[in-house]
Model the fold of this input.
Amino acid sequence: MAAPEEGLPAVDAPRVRAPFVVVKCKDCSKEHVIFSRPASPVNCSICGAPLASPTGGRGNFLGEVVRTVA
Ligand SMILES: [Zn+2]
Done:
């Protein structure tokens, strides 16, 4: 029998359950509240610098994650 989980990445259960994170832009220090699992790239609304990129799960945050927002 084929292993049903073959091809699925071994991902740790997410420890951060908060749906939103506050990410500070590296370029202009503007803080943005963005979804923790973005479906599309998120850019700074002020200067356009990338803040997060989608990974299929929890986003890859390119700015400083200041805190999470429940
Ligand atoms: Zn910015």
The mean pLDDT is 85. Residues 25, 27-28, 30, 44, 46-47, 49 surround zinc ion (CB under 6 Å). The chain has one domain: 20-69.
